[in-house]
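Repro:
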Amino acid sequence: QVQLVESGGGWVQPGGSLRLSCAASGNIFSIGLMGWYRQAPGKERELVARITSGGSTNYADSVQGRFIISRDNAKNTVSLQMNGLKPEDTDVYYCYALISTIQDRHIMRQYWGKGTLATVSA
């Protein structure tokens, strides 16, 4: 069984910063792509940022230059440093990862965390 657990959400004023973290645990053989999505009520989940195992990154245009994604392959963690936060960044942020398990080493499956809420308001 594989689990992704997020932490680090909360409330911050506009212009402030938050750091989200996500730890993968369980019967993990390897982890490929990791990343963060976000979703507001009534809207579709959208990609925020993603990072390959080699460290290549992609960002949504709306967060480019403000957010930084990073990962620690040894610890099976991915983080999202969010700077210059705006009210429109208020969302539930979900961690995801492509993971193969010890039982199925050749199959990469997508796993999701339960989400952490980030609220940006004055």
